[in-house]
Write a structure and sequence with these properties.
Blueprint lengths: L16 E5 L5 E6 L13 H14 L12 E7 L10 H9 L3 H19 L6 E7 L3 E2 L1 H7 L3 E5 L3 E3 L13 H5 L5 H10 L2 E3 H7 L4 E3 L4 H13 L2 H15 L3 H16 L3 H22 L1
Parallel strand pairs: 2-3, 3-4, 4-6, 5-7, 6-9
Antiparallel strand pairs: 1-2, 7-8
Length: about 290
């Protein structure tokens, strides 16, 4: 039995995620794509986003209720073979063809609210960790970048391929990458659309901790145990990061508005490419379900 399976469930009533909380209440684990065996695509479908942010809201504590010196951790992981393949391209394609700017912007804002929550540590008393054990592409990469720490297993693909269909990653990639690497390199990575290995991302300084296949859970547990021994220092680091390197919510919102307007300008060739990628995701989901 894994260390994660020993964590008591929170009475999981979700269909797309599995949520777990440690017995002391100091660590919360959220596994995306709990419905992956049913052949669902491992991407940010609206129902997944709803359940993800419902759970994070349920564990976010008001400042008035926090215990001084208490540090908590939030771990974002996946039950699919992929960490996350990004935005819901099927939804994007439909909304763009329908010229439905309102719903496209609503979706983008929903994503922005979530990545900003992870980036700010659920209000400041939480250290967020992305556990990447499968491919993290597009929005999946952005979600990992929003976390304080990225732990990745070897042999995983990570990248921002949106340029393949004429778009750019508009839910925080440039802002978060520019806090980890130079803005020039971040821009090049976005415009090239290349998929990097987790080993390459570690060498570039994007991935914080690189471990062999199968060692990701243990590595995250070690990080949690180490940081829980110095809670005041970690809480202070959260505050320092917020002062020195925070990505303002308004910045994310302004950029994602550019993303929406760019999406609505895509031509039919770009939309057909998007449709082909959706079919590839579906084949991958069916194969995993089988």
């Amino acid at each position: 039995m894994s260390m994660i399976e020993k964590l008591p469930s929170n009475g999981n009533a979700y269909s797309t995620i599995r949520a777990e909380t440690s017995s002391d209440g100091n660590s919360h684990w959220m596994f995306m794509h709990h419905d992956a065996p049913n052949g669902s695509r491992p991407c940010f479908r609206p129902e997944l986003l709803d359940e993800m942010w419902d759970f994070t809201a349920s564990i976010t504590q008001p400042v008035s209720e926090r215990q001084p010196g208490r540090l908590r951790h939030f771990v974002l992981a996946s039950e699919a073979t992929a960490f996350n393949l990004g935005g819901d391209l099927q939804l994007f394609s439909r909304l763009i063809r329908e010229r439905d700017r309102g719903h496209l912007l609503d979706y983008a804002r929903r994503c922005i609210d979530g990545v900003h929550t992870l980036h700010t540590g659920l209000g400041g008393d939480v250290r967020s960790i992305a556990l990447v054990q499968g491919d993290a592409l597009g929005g999946g990469m952005e979600m990992a970048l929003a976390c304080h720490t990225i732990v990745a297993e070897e042999g995983v693909g990570m990248g921002l391929p949106e340029v393949l269909f004429g778009l750019f990653p508009g839910m925080g990639a440039y802002s978060f990458l520019s806090r980890r690497i130079s803005p020039q390199l971040a821009e090049r990575m976005i415009l090239e659309g290349r998929i990097y290995s987790s080993q390459e991302m570690h060498a570039l300084g994007v991935v914080d901790v690189l471990v062999p296949r199968g060692d990701g859970v243990a590595a995250v547990q070690q990080i949690i145990q180490r940081e829980q021994r110095v809670p005041h220092a970690c809480l202070a680091m959260n505050a320092a990061r917020r002062l020195a390197q925070t990505v303002p919510h308004q910045e994310l919102l302004d950029i994602t508005t550019v993303w929406v307007d760019t999406a609505l300008a895509l031509d039919d060739k770009s939309l057909r490419m998007m449709d082909r990628l959706v079919r590839a995701q579906m084949r991958r989901a069916d194969k995993e379900a089988a």
